Amino acid sequence: MAVYRRGKTWWYSFIYAGKRVQESAKTTRKTLAVEAERARRLELERALCGFPTEARERRIRSVGQVLDSYAAGYGLNHRQRSAVWVKGCVAHLKKHLGSLLLPDLTEDAVRGFIRARLEEGACGRTINMDLGTLSRAIGKPWRALWPNLRKLEERKDVGQALSPDDETKLLEAIPRLRSMLIGTFVRIALMTGMRAGEIISLTWGQVDLAQRVITVGRAKTPSGTGRQIPMNLDLTEVLSAHAAWFTERFKNTHPSDYLFPWGSPFPTDPSRQATTIKTAWESLREKAGVSCRLHDLRHTAATKMAEAGVPESTMLSIMGHMSRAMLERYSHIRMAAKRAAVDSLSTKPRSAKKDRVSTVSTTVEPKERIQ
Q1: N or C terminus: which one in the chain shows less Cβ crowding within 10 Å?
Q2: At the fourth CATH level, which superfamily is domain 164-330?
Q3: SS3 for the chain, per residue?
Q4: Pairwise CA distance, residues 191 & 304, whole Å
Q5: How far, in Å, CA of 3 to CA of 24, rounded?
């Protein structure tokens, strides 16, 4: 081993594969310089044998630098909505961990991040997604970076399926709004199970009224992109009426025009999609007196299909899911369907059940009503 000092800094110099390697060890300690030379030799040996090697300068970057680089390139091959979501995760990570160097990103540091995010009110799923973004930015899986750190538990009951009463209230409140788009939007969601982003980005070229088919554009998952969803007669009538309104307002309906044009308070530019439907949705919920999320319309569609006995493979194809586990997150068998199922398990003869008179009150207080 050949280490020597230049001024206060130690260097190493050796010949490997017929070439001289002469570099600074970037330390004032000889013992560390010796270790640096040994590590450099090992790195070159791995490269010569064809093993992947990590650039050394990457090891001393800060967490903030790694995250900035990841976020900058993320939008090149991902949807705009996904890129916005990643920027949000990066902001949380940089706030608590951005100043750390990568070697200092220990499990204790990550636990500190988790505690801080929990104090801020973030749920387990949100924190897991933040740390998933961090692991992808570093380029290593969670289990390799923090093998002794388990992911947080995630709630499975966040989504809900609307009760028939709540669904009716929403639909009946639509005519009371000024918005020309929210009615069509809500009905598409309820009758296709499409995601909000998939609906708002629909163009007329994706809607075939003659064949009664909607072709989904770029979706959240590969299995969802390009999937075709048949329209029932109700949805065909809704979209036909929407097409008539659209043609009257914009004089024509081009395949590249968006079903939900840009413009506020009224749509003005069909060549651009509406950025959000949130304001109209909040107004609709308020008018209807219903407490639910926009994404719950998708849960409702999945639940209806599950209760109707639609095969899982068909539901996966319509919903654009990649797994049965994800499908289970969306389909919730409602109490009415469960009650009908257990009624079929009765051991009493049918005639006895018909003659039996219930003395139990069927009145349910509003706060106890089962959704």
Answers
A1: N
A2: Intergrase catalytic core (1.10.443.10)
A3: CCEEEECCEEEEEEEECCEEEEEECCCCCHHHHHHHHHHHHHHHHHHHCCCCCCCHHHHHCEHHHHHHHHHHHHCCCCCHHHHHHHHHHHHHHHHHHCCCEHHHCCHHHHHHHHHHHHHCCCCHHHHHHHHHHHHHHHCCCHHHHCCCCCCCCCCCCCCCCCCHHHHHHHHHHHHHCCCCCHHHHHHHHHHHCCCHHHHHCCEHHHEECCCCEEECCCCCCCCCCCCEEECCHHHHHHHHHHHHHHHHHHCCCCCCCECCEECCCCCCEEEEECCCCHHHHHHHHHHHCCCCCCCHHHHHHHHHHHHCCCCHHHHHHHHCCCCHHHHHHHCCCCHHHHHHHHHCCCCCCHHHHHHCCCCCCCCCCHHHCCC
A4: 10
A5: 9
- Domain map of the chain by residue range? 3-53, 63-145, 164-330
Query: Is the per-residue pLDDT at 362 higher than 50?
Result: no
Q: What CATH class does 63-145 carry?
A: mainly alpha
Pick from 79-83, 96-100, 134-138, 329-333: least confident: 329-333
Instruction: Name the one residue in this structure whose structure tokens are 């990103």.
Output: 105
For the cut 90, the answer to whether the pLDDT of residue 9 exceeds it is: yes
> Tokens standing for 360?
């139990």
